[in-house]
Write a structure and sequence with these properties.
The complex is a heterodimer of chains A (308) and B (273). With 308 residues, chain A is mainly α. Chain A contains twelve helices and two strands. Chain B is mainly alpha-helical and 273 residues long. The chains are: A mainly alpha (308), B mainly alpha (273). At the A-B interface, helix 1, helix 3, helix 4, helix 5 and helix 7 of A face helix 1, helix 3, helix 4, helix 5 and helix 6 of B.
């Protein structure tokens, strides 16, 4: 092989090597990417498409384009509006309860952080958030059974007349909120505990020297220190609440009346009980946009809070 | 009483009350699983059941073990598929420099916001077209896919912790990216991989919505079966209790072993604990 030939051959082989490396790199990203497009982008685009049609699951070959009529109908459908209101109430109150009780619990476990018993109790109390939601729903259906459940029995022991936890329209949503917050308070507790652990001990010592009371410490040291972490928790909990389904499916099925109707359950019923997939898809698209908008706002707020 | 004991005694009482609140409902269901139908709803409540009474478990498992098996197969299959797809992607996103890298990472994260209900009808139709309704394969595919965003994000957070020098050294030694990934990055990230895999396992194990409409008989998963014990006329509480206890075993084991990783896991690495 002459010198001139190698000079020409080398860049070519290098180019070959580089394109081979590019191929190799692509193979890391392409499978997951294609998979995600197929499983999330495609269904989403198709849902939007369906939502613009009058479509019945059993007669999909006879779809009719109706533009935004489904959306127009949704926002005059009192059941859907109830579902929106319920999910808003449920999300805000659950997260509030989770933060308040979670903070208290985090403080308690923070003061026991170096004890063995504290660690054991903490691991036991975070189990609810990993338990299958369907089981959580059933556990509480059992406990809140109107005539024979332990909750009403215990209320009776202290002289309170039995409550219709799930059957009383004015109480049913509160019961669902109670169950939902019961399951997720441990999550907020863990987040805040991680935040408290990140506070340097000197800050506490300095505050103690200056004679700060517990509420001074909470307001000036602890709450600022955990604010960022709690915001992350709030975003995640909002997204999760908007897609809440299992607990309602197993406890109240949206009733009594529309008192515990929520948007995912509404969409589910339209799709798979009435087979009105165009209408159901419109409801699902509304949830998706709500999640995106709420997340965007919260993330923006989070960023500006971090810049302070 | 010393100052030290006094300063822990109040928090200890608080911790006991908190733990009781979060554990007692589960314990109550556990106790119910050993009661007869009349014992489950006796007034006053039967506080301590006869633990040798295991008929509920026997009856429940005799009828429903195929569905329990479905759940195990679907969950294990989905976990493996998800991890196999997500780990290389996470490695690529943390180690390759290319245009649009951040955009790609953000897009992957954003797909987690999609409510599963929005994917329900389209996926139902696709699987219907392929004749795959009521097949455990459909569930494996869906559960793996739904957990990819989460798995990629958590995996990125631990691949970022692999020392840069280690990756560079492997490259200088002439390792291809595949070799670097398999021989360097994976072995040093073992505990992170275990975290991702167990989370995906639990998410798939708990899933109800997709299983409700993608399965009818043969491929039903355990959560679907449990929910079917609740009928408008009657609820078979003795079976519900036994099934709930069995369904809860993997999550409980997982929580006790992995509790240190739960915060960073559930927040997808956004918060370090």
């Amino acid at each position: 092989m002459s010198a001139s030939e190698t000079a020409i051959a080398r860049p070519a082989s290098r180019r070959l090597a580089r394109s081979k490396e590019r191929m190799e790199r692509l193979m890391f990203l392409v499978p997951a990417g294609v998979y995600l497009v197929a499983l999330t982008i495609f269904p989403f685009v198709y849902s939007v498409y369906l939502s613009l049609h009058q479509a019945k699951l059993t007669k999909l070959h006879r779809m009719r384009f109706i533009g935004f009529d489904n959306y127009a109908e949704l926002f005059t459908d009192s059941l859907f509006l109830d579902a929106c209101r319920n999910i808003a109430v449920l999300t805000v109150s659950s997260i509030t309860v989770e933060i308040l009780i979670g903070f208290f619990a985090a403080k308690v476990f923070f003061s026991l952080r170096e004890t063995r018993v504290g660690a054991v109790l903490r691991s036991a109390s975070i189990v609810p958030m990993m338990i299958t939601p369907i089981c959580i729903g059933l556990i509480f259906s059992y406990i809140f059974n109107p005539n024979l459940g332990i909750a009403n029995f215990l209320l009776g022991e202290i002289g309170i007349s039995p409550l219709g936890w799930f059957s009383d329209p004015s109480l049913a949503l509160a019961t669902v909120i109670l169950i939902n917050s019961w399951q997720w308070t441990p999550f907020m507790m863990l987040l805040m505990l991680a935040g408290l652990m990140s506070i340097p001990a000197e800050q506490y010592e300095a505050a103690e020297i200056e004679g700060a009371k517990w509420y001074h410490i909470a307001a000036w040291i602890e709450i600022p220190a955990i604010r960022g972490i709690v915001l992350v928790g709030i975003i995640l909990r909002v997204i999760d609440n908007l897609r809440l389904f299992d607990i309602v499916y197993v406890t109240t099925r949206g009733g009594p009346g529309s008192s515990t109707e929520i948007v995912t359950f509404f969409a589910y019923k339209q799709d798979f009980q009435y087979f009105q997939v165009g209408y159901g898809s419109a409801a699902a698209v509304v949830i998706l946009f709500a999640s995106v908008i709420i997340t965007a706002i919260t993330v923006k707020y989070l960023r500006s809070a971090e810049d302070d | 009483m010393t100052r030290r004991t006094r300063s822990t005694i109040l928090p200890l009482i608080g911790a006991l009350i908190i733990t009781l609140i979060f554990v007692a409902p589960m314990v109550w269901m556990f106790l119910a699983s050993f009661k007869t139908v009349s014992g489950i709803f006796s007034i006053p409540p039967q506080w301590v059941p006869d633990f040798t009474y295991t008929d509920n478990y026997v009856t429940m498992l005799k009828d429903d073990w195929p569905y329990l098996l479905n759940s195990v197969i679907v969950t294990v299959g989905a976990t493996i598929l998800c991890v196999v797809l997500a780990l290389p992607a996470a490695f690529g996103l943390t180690n390759f420099r290319f245009r649009g890298r951040n955009f790609l990472a953000d897009w992957i994260l954003s797909t987690r916001m999609m409510p599963p209900i929005a994917a329900g009808v389209p996926l139902y139709m696709v699987f219907n077209g392929f004749g795959m309704l009521d097949s455990i394969w459909a569930l494996i595919i869906v559960y793996a896919g739904f957990n990819i965003p989460f798995a990629v994000w958590v995996a990125m957070s631990f691949f970022r912790r692999v020392p840069r020098e280690l990756i560079e050294a492997a490259q200088l030694e002439g390792c291809s990216w595949t070799q670097t990934f398999l021989k360097v990055a994976l072995p040093v990230s073992k505990s992170g991989i275990a975290t991702v895999a167990t989370f995906v396992f639990i998410f798939a194990w708990n899933e109800l919505l997709m299983a409700l409409f993608l399965t009818t008989r043969a491929a039903k998963t355990f959560p679907v079966v449990i929910s079917s014990y609740v009928t408008t006329g009657n609820t078979f509480w003795e079976l519900v209790a036994a099934a709930s206890v069995i369904q809860a075993i993997p999550p409980i084991i997982f929580t006790l072993i992995m509790q240190r990783h739960i915060v960073s896991g559930l927040t997808m690495g956004a918060v370090k604990d």
